[in-house]
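Message: I would value a second opinion on how I read folds in C-alpha coordinate form. Give me a protein, with the fold worked out from its sequence. Write it directly below this note and I will take it from there.
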Amino acid sequence: MDSPPPPDVEVYDHFFRGRHALIEALTTDLDEFLEICDPEKECLCLSADGNKMSWDLTSPPPHLPPPDLHGPVPGVFFKREDMPLSEWLLKIALQCDTWLNSVASHRGAHLDTSAR
Protein backbone atom coordinates (compact mmCIF):
# COMPACT_ATOMS: atom_id res chain seq x y z
CA MET A 1 0.00 0.00 0.00
CA ASP A 2 1.41 3.38 -1.02
CA SER A 3 1.55 6.07 1.61
CA PRO A 4 -0.10 9.40 0.80
CA PRO A 5 2.19 12.19 -0.39
CA PRO A 6 3.42 14.67 2.21
CA PRO A 7 1.03 17.62 2.64
CA ASP A 8 3.40 20.11 1.02
CA VAL A 9 3.72 17.90 -2.07
CA GLU A 10 -0.06 17.52 -2.14
CA VAL A 11 -0.52 21.33 -2.15
CA TYR A 12 1.97 21.68 -5.01
CA ASP A 13 0.45 18.80 -7.00
CA HIS A 14 -3.07 20.23 -6.61
CA PHE A 15 -1.85 23.65 -7.80
CA PHE A 16 0.09 22.16 -10.73
CA ARG A 17 -2.81 19.97 -11.92
CA GLY A 18 -5.30 22.84 -11.57
CA ARG A 19 -3.02 25.20 -13.47
CA HIS A 20 -2.56 22.61 -16.21
CA ALA A 21 -6.35 22.23 -16.54
CA LEU A 22 -6.90 26.00 -16.81
CA ILE A 23 -4.14 26.38 -19.39
CA GLU A 24 -5.72 23.56 -21.36
CA ALA A 25 -9.11 25.33 -21.24
CA LEU A 26 -7.64 28.52 -22.68
CA THR A 27 -5.40 26.88 -25.31
CA THR A 28 -5.97 23.28 -26.39
CA ASP A 29 -9.70 23.31 -25.57
CA LEU A 30 -10.28 26.92 -26.62
CA ASP A 31 -12.91 26.06 -29.25
CA GLU A 32 -14.85 23.99 -26.71
CA PHE A 33 -14.47 26.73 -24.08
CA LEU A 34 -15.78 29.40 -26.48
CA GLU A 35 -18.67 27.16 -27.50
CA ILE A 36 -19.72 26.69 -23.87
CA CYS A 37 -19.52 30.43 -23.15
CA ASP A 38 -23.07 31.68 -23.25
CA PRO A 39 -23.35 35.49 -23.36
CA GLU A 40 -26.94 35.14 -22.09
CA LYS A 41 -25.61 33.94 -18.74
CA GLU A 42 -24.47 36.93 -16.76
CA CYS A 43 -21.99 35.30 -14.46
CA LEU A 44 -19.88 32.21 -15.08
CA CYS A 45 -16.72 30.96 -13.41
CA LEU A 46 -13.86 29.10 -15.03
CA SER A 47 -12.51 26.75 -12.41
CA ALA A 48 -10.26 23.71 -12.26
CA ASP A 49 -10.42 20.49 -10.32
CA GLY A 50 -6.86 19.80 -9.26
CA ASN A 51 -7.75 16.24 -8.33
CA LYS A 52 -9.16 15.33 -11.74
CA MET A 53 -6.97 17.71 -13.77
CA SER A 54 -10.06 19.05 -15.52
CA TRP A 55 -11.69 22.45 -16.04
CA ASP A 56 -15.30 23.55 -15.80
CA LEU A 57 -17.29 26.62 -16.75
CA THR A 58 -20.26 26.99 -14.41
CA SER A 59 -22.34 29.43 -12.45
CA PRO A 60 -20.75 30.58 -9.18
CA PRO A 61 -21.10 28.01 -6.39
CA PRO A 62 -24.24 28.53 -4.28
CA HIS A 63 -22.28 28.07 -1.06
CA LEU A 64 -19.70 30.54 0.10
CA PRO A 65 -16.12 29.33 0.45
CA PRO A 66 -14.42 29.75 3.83
CA PRO A 67 -13.83 33.46 4.55
CA ASP A 68 -10.08 33.12 4.06
CA LEU A 69 -10.44 31.30 0.73
CA HIS A 70 -11.58 32.98 -2.45
CA GLY A 71 -13.87 31.03 -4.75
CA PRO A 72 -13.42 31.02 -8.50
CA VAL A 73 -13.76 34.56 -9.76
CA PRO A 74 -17.04 35.14 -11.58
CA GLY A 75 -16.79 37.25 -14.67
CA VAL A 76 -15.86 35.26 -17.73
CA PHE A 77 -18.05 37.72 -19.58
CA PHE A 78 -16.21 40.99 -19.64
CA LYS A 79 -17.43 43.14 -22.49
CA ARG A 80 -16.02 40.80 -25.11
CA GLU A 81 -17.34 42.78 -28.03
CA ASP A 82 -15.13 45.70 -27.02
CA MET A 83 -11.81 43.84 -26.94
CA PRO A 84 -9.76 41.42 -29.02
CA LEU A 85 -9.98 37.73 -28.12
CA SER A 86 -6.36 37.65 -26.93
CA GLU A 87 -6.97 40.49 -24.47
CA TRP A 88 -10.17 38.85 -23.19
CA LEU A 89 -8.33 35.54 -22.66
CA LEU A 90 -5.53 37.37 -20.85
CA LYS A 91 -8.03 38.85 -18.37
CA ILE A 92 -9.53 35.41 -17.73
CA ALA A 93 -6.05 33.89 -17.30
CA LEU A 94 -5.15 36.57 -14.74
CA GLN A 95 -8.32 35.84 -12.77
CA CYS A 96 -7.59 32.12 -12.85
CA ASP A 97 -3.99 32.62 -11.68
CA THR A 98 -5.20 34.76 -8.81
CA TRP A 99 -7.71 32.10 -7.80
CA LEU A 100 -5.16 29.25 -8.02
CA ASN A 101 -2.61 31.17 -5.96
CA SER A 102 -5.29 31.93 -3.38
CA VAL A 103 -6.20 28.24 -3.08
CA ALA A 104 -2.54 27.19 -2.81
CA SER A 105 -1.87 29.88 -0.18
CA HIS A 106 -4.95 28.84 1.78
CA ARG A 107 -3.93 25.18 1.76
CA GLY A 108 -0.31 26.03 2.56
CA ALA A 109 -1.30 28.25 5.48
CA HIS A 110 -3.08 25.32 7.07
CA LEU A 111 -0.02 23.06 7.02
CA ASP A 112 1.49 22.39 10.41
CA THR A 113 5.05 23.44 11.17
CA SER A 114 6.62 20.11 10.24
CA ALA A 115 4.79 19.99 6.90
CA ARG A 116 6.01 23.43 5.91
